[in-house]
Amino acid sequence: MTAWRQAVAQRPRHVAVWAVAGGLLAATWPPGATPALALAAVLLLRASRLPRRLALVAAAAVLAGGALGQARLEALDRHGLGPLLEQRVAGHATLLTQPRADAAGRARALVGLRVGPAQGRVLLRLPGTAAERRIGRELAVAGRLRPPDRGARALRAHATLLAERAVPTGARRGGLAGLVDGVRDRAAAALARGLPPVDGALLQGMVLGQDAGLPQHVVDDLRAAGLAHLTAASGQNVLLLAALGLAAGALLGLPVRPRLVLVLGLVALYVPLAGAGPSIQRAGVMGAAGLAATLAGRPAARWYAVGLAAAVTLALDPRAAGDPGWQMSFAAVVALAALARPLAARLQADAGAPGPGRRVRVPRGVAEALAVAVVATLATAPVAAAHFGRTSLAAVPANVLAAPAVAPVMWLGTTAGALAQAAPALAAPVAAVAAVPVAYVRALGGAAGGLGAAEVAVPPALVVVTCATALGALGLLAAAHRCRQRAADAARDAARGGVVPDDPVPPRVPSAAARRARRAAGVAVAVALAAAWAVALRPPPRLAPPAPGVLRVTFLDVGQGDATLLQAGGGAVLVDAGPPGAGVPGLLARAGVRRLDALVLSHDAADHLGGAAEVLARVPTTLVLDGRDGGRSPAAAAVDAPARAAGARLLAARAGQQLRAGALRLRVLWPPSGRPVAGADPNDRAVVLEAGAAGTHALLPADAESAVLAGLGLGPVDVLKVSHHGSRDDGLPALLARLAPRVAVVSAGRRNPYGHPAAETLAGLRAVPRVLRTDRAGTVVVEGRGGRLHVGSAS
């Protein structure tokens, strides 16, 4: 029996726990998947010549996991809100997560909703900013209860509440959850007291995972730099907390076992304090498993701990495996367990035989930080590219540079939070010291994230191939490291015992030809990967301006947002500029646009005007048709300074206005004059624009839906931008019958959390001859001339 088969045969618990995790995962698959997985486990283990008993244990564990998963799914899906769907409701909601702004700048949070005797988990969507940010607080809410959209389903919520009102009642939940809320609130207040608001919010994020108070530009910088994981409580936090607890126990003179019990208690408290998300659940279970193994006097089995973490998190919620955070967390921990140590050893010492004469290449701390950054980035980049379509090229150097600050932030922040439970004044000096490494992390994120190529859009398949190749090379390195380590251990044991083998086998020295072959293979792989990246990152060719007598409407692929370019007869008008960081100036350059006659800001929503400041700073613009309607959200306020610096004229958008830009004729159909009603939905005051040239007409309604459009006396159009990213609109069929568009385009982001475009909208759009979506087709180009339309994609 080979070494690995013997290792598996001797560890039936490992097989069982991984089989249970597989069964729990299969519970979310189509019917019949669990028995098929159990049969596959039996065949695989028997084909590997492992004992029949082990195969039966694996099959039984898969079936047990599947049964447990089905029971858990039924329990999670059980609620009493079904009869209230599509009705206006009023009740009380308890915040289960911190409210945070979505792509449109509106607040959303997961809440526990009670409407009379009915209750369930609901995604609360608010038209404005959240009035209360603290978890566990109660709100009196009223609004329309809708079936769960994609964002709600991602949080395993039973419904979505489109709230018209959400007022804090002053009440809070009680019991054990209430006690944890109090601890969290005192710690969060201590971490923010006396610090600049941005640094205080970043410290709360790095210690407690509570990052909702971070400004959007800081969030964008950290994401682009590959440092966003620092504000999501994860295994690193648990590891640092355990180290702090062990050190504190040692200072108190506690024996080893009480010290480990203390750390177990800290981990058990920290998981709910940090929000109990999938990544921190996984980290808590793995940390507890390792500590329990230490208590039992056995070395921690890394793979058993990983399997146990997967089984426990999936038992809590079998659908957790669909979360990008869960996937990236497990991808990182598996890769780190297998590859980080060999890579760090390789970086530290020469490839020759171990011993005191080795030539040290990299200091130990730097080597370990670099190994963790490289392996974790390679493991998580394919997941991030598949879900979000972007990859951070700055992740490895940024994480290596951030490493010296992470531990001090966690240790100082945890100490400040603990002192705040007794006396907030004691926590202030410690938090002030923690502000120094926090400011360093913020500055590093801003510098790395601000690089032009920090975050790039790369085909996911290319990222997968590149990372898989690199991880495979590291796997070979790990195998060679293990072989050398075993040989060194055997030689050391023989020397200690005074035993010299009768027929010693000299270490195998590769021939010069073998070394040359390895180097040539490495160079070939590097050249192939460099060529693939060069092809992927090569900017597409720039489009020539449209020919005379042609109206070109380009629906730019900006993710979950809107940005539409109109060109005709030398005129160029941009309607909306997408969300922050969408890179619209680069998209305009590819479209052959060097200046804009006008930039239209349809309404105060971050997914429509978040990129406006960047456009105004980089693209000369003559006029800003301002539909902000007095809105002063952060995204709206960010437009003023670059507009003044660019010398652009600001003109408030009002119905009846007519503009010309080259051959383009623009007519504003909405909103009417007058100030908006306080608390009104900005979508209902969005600029509705009709554009015409070359005998072709396009209607761009931004987020204004049929309730607004039905009263505008609209006639037939050639091209329609579907309202509000294709959200559900009961009046859409009647509107389409009036407009009779030949082409309809939905601007939405891939895998967006709102479920855009809605199934009902897509069903209604079947009446339109051509329907395109930017989440599938990328940038869509429609050209009209003399009544004929040509539709294509520029992605």
Structure characteristics:
single chain; OB fold (Dihydrolipoamide Acetyltransferase, E2P); 795 residues; Metallo-beta-lactamase, Chain A; 8-stranded mixed sheet; globular; 7-stranded mixed sheet; alpha/beta; 49% helix
Q: From the structure provided, what is the oligomeric state, counting identical versus distinct chains?
A: single chain
Unreliably modeled segments: 350-358, 502-507
CATH topology of one domain: Metallo-beta-lactamase, Chain A
Q: Architecture of one domain, according to CATH?
A: 4-Layer Sandwich
CATH evolutionary superfamily of one domain: Ribonuclease Z/Hydroxyacylglutathione hydrolase-like
For the residues shown, what is the average pLDDT?
A: 84
Strand arrangement within the widest β-sheet reads: 14-13-12-11-10-9-22-23
Coarse shape: globular
Could you give the count of β-strands? 23
End-to-end distance: 54 Å
What level of helicity do the residues show? 40-55%
| CATH class value of one domain | Alpha Beta
Q: What count of helical segments does DSSP give?
A: 27
Major beta-sheet overview: 8 strands, mixed
